[in-house]
Amino acid sequence: MSDANSTEIMTPEDYNLGFHIGGLFANLAASGVGVLLPILFGLTSFPPKTTSKIQSVIQTARTFGSGVILATAFIHMLPSAFANLSDPSLPWQFQEESGYTGWAGLIAMLAALLLHLLEFTATQRFFLREKETLQLKASSDLKGHVPDIGGPEKNKHGSDSGSLYRNEATQGHAVTISSIQEPDPCVHVGHVHGGEILLANKKTPVSASSKQVEAGHHILEDDEEAQRVQDHENQTRMIGTFILEFGIALHSVIIGIALGTAIGTEFVSLLIALLFHQFFEGVALGGRIASLKFHRASLGPWLLSAGFTLSTPVGVALGIGIRQSYDDAAVTTLLVQGVFDALSAGILLYTAMVQLMSTELNANRGFRESSTRSQTVQFVALWCGAASMAIIGKWA
Hints:
Shape: globular
Structural class: mainly alpha
Strand content: under 5%
Strand order of the largest sheet: 1-2
Number of strands: 2
Order of helices and strands: HHHHEEHHHHHHH
């Protein structure tokens, strides 16, 4: 985020170690508060109205943070990557006359493509596991199923076979038959369940109790389908959250090093920009972590939060440690910063556009069905987050 070709020369007298250590702890606090706020609110019980208002505020802040992440990639990382990887001091492979000047864009694009492949592979594994589970369940159901054609049959004990199904349905699952309304026999919550068989059954009289059992099975099927959808969404969110944190952490270490080696007015402006940057990036990431279905005793949310919280301070500590030998114009420094910025840009662009903007807004049924006012608030928050981080790009 800092200018790799800065002409300001650092001397021991210019470097204020106390300020830099203070900046390290200030970033630690800003990052920690930002990422933990959504998680702690998610674990705290409030009255329903208060909870609704808090969730609305957190969602708006999370959308604002998504805009911050988007602008971070476009305004802060990509230009820095292009500047570093096209510096005249680099080898000929990076020069326009005899080499290739699109290294930054190429690395960012490859990072995005690899993330897409990683996400697809992980999601595909989940789908295959779900398919195997459903096939095993279907096979088990077929083995234990006795067809009921033309009405109830008597079994060898003289009891009604239809009542056997009803007893199994009611005993095996907690379903209150008396409270179930008769559903549409072919269409149920947007899905067709055995439509042809049910249409054929319309031609023969069906007892009220059989209809109730059928309704009970529909409810159980819909519960299982809802659980599968929820599991898939959680799996997708978890993959996206890991990817997002990796991209943010990679970039945070680099900007931490820049802060740890900065001096004078550059240090002050960069510190202010980073405090804003880390807080709202933390809110966006914390909102994603809070939306995951972790067990209450799981260490997952806290480990993910700690990883983000410590990334920038670790970078600052590294910058403080190497401040005497650090040369931001050295070839190695330019290459490392350029490659890391390009990788981070590709990761954050993919995550911001696919996981945050598209998934959280365009593909979110709850958002699409919300009021026009709520939708407007979220879009304004997204744009304001992007605009604010774009403006801060003047100093950071």
